[in-house]
UniProtKB/TrEMBL annotation:
A GO molecular-function descriptor: transmembrane transporter activity
Transmembrane segments: 12-33, 48-67, 88-108, 128-145
Localization annotation: Cell inner membrane
Keyword field contains Glycosyltransferase: no
Membrane topology (UniProt): Multi-pass membrane protein
Origin species: uncultured Sporomusa sp
Family: Belongs to the TRAP transporter small permease family.
BP GO annotations: C4-dicarboxylate transport
Protein name: Putative Tripartite ATP-independent periplasmic transporter DctQ component
Lineage of the species this protein comes from: Bacteria, Bacillati, Bacillota, Negativicutes, Selenomonadales
């Protein structure tokens, strides 16, 4: 059951990332055409592209954690004695979870401030931009917990 739900979440996140990337490329392409063909710059396109890029980055970070494609010190862990591998891996996951928790906490403060601010060109509340921070933080913690369970509780890191 958990595996099925996790796979659906993963497919949803991949789809969202694809749509956000497609939207960003389309908006930037539209801006280039508008500027160089029609000699008229769109006032909102740079801001939309920037905010989409932020969302893509944070969703991509969660997906990288899920796929274990984030930066890791695999060489160091490979040189450790077998008895130390799991504790070091667990410490790494727990440290990353703590940092994601700090990110969530700081993001909630940013969202509170962002509710009183609007973007320059789009005039949308800035909390829409900042909303991805706690969402990705929760996703990162979820995938780190999943990886921690698989690697340390099920014995997934035996080389």
């Amino acid at each position: 059951m958990f595996s099925v739900l996790e796979k659906k979440l993963y497919k949803f996140l991949l789809g969202m990332s694809f749509l956000l990337m497609l939207s960003m490329v389309s908006v930037i392409f539209l801006q280039v055409i508008s500027r160089y063909v029609f000699s008229n710059s769109l006032t909102w396109s740079e801001e939309v592209g920037r905010y989409l890029f932020v969302w893509i980055t944070f969703l991509g970070t969660a997906l990288a954690v899920r796929n274990r494609s984030h930066v890791a010190l695999d060489v160091l862990i490979g040189k450790l004695p077998q008895s130390l591998k799991k504790p070091v891996i667990a410490f790494g996951y727990l440290t990353m979870m703590a940092l994601a928790g700090v990110m969530i906490y700081a993001a909630i403060n940013m969202i509170t401030l962002g509710s009183r601010q609007v973007s320059a060109a789009l005039q949308i509340p800035m909390y829409w931009v900042y909303l991805i921070l706690p969402v990705s933080g929760v996703l990162i913690i979820f995938y780190l917990a999943k990886n921690l369970y698989e690697d340390c509780m099920q014995g997934g890191t035996e080389d």
